[in-house]
What we know:
The protein is of the alpha+beta class.
Amino acid sequence: xxxxxxxxxxxxxxxxxxxxxxxxxxxxxxxxxxxxxxxxxxxxxxxxxxxxxxxxxxxxxxxxxxxxxxxxxxxxxxxxxxxxxxxxxxxxxxxxxxxxxxxxxxxxxxxxxxxxxxxxxxxxxxxxxxxxxxxxxxxxxxxxxxxxxxxxxxxxxxxxxxxxxxxxxxxxxxxxxxxxxxxxxxxxxxxxxxxxxxxxxxxxxxxxxxxxxxxxxxxxxxxxxxxxxxxxxxxxxxxxxxxxxxxxxxx
Length: 251
């Protein structure tokens, strides 16, 4: 019974796998590799500047089983792979892996600087969705890259922590600044009050000086009042002299 169950399970999985024509998939994959190898920067830029409708139309007219996004992303991935691995040299046989909704085609490729793995993914309609170029690094290169990433990450963390510590250390100046800002208004009011008092004092001093210095004017006024009243000048004293707001004399 267990053997029968396993057999039925295997039949069920194989029946759900995506059906494809190996020769046509190989032909379209080979064409894409050759096109990416021969396309220059101007041609790639022309494809990237084209809108989705025209791009889909061009691919449909040529009979190529590529989606618009899959084709442009394949061109970009190839250019990135060239920068990482060097110029393309050759590739080996294709390996096919299927599931119920996609087909994955892989092959080992040789580039000038390092080897790489080319991976092509076709969707359920057997149209190319993506292509990637994965460079193969030695253990030393992997460790060096990992160490560099670790140092860079830790350095960034320490820089951020130092910056946060500096900001926190400045918090102790906030109460003093707040107190100074509060006392600023009080200080201005006190200064204004002091200025008013000083001006009043100067005004009073000026009036006193005017009375003291104008002795002749005081004597003349005192004599005039004494003559008007018919008395002597000993009965009163002129303490201050002020100008009236109006020049008219009141009776």
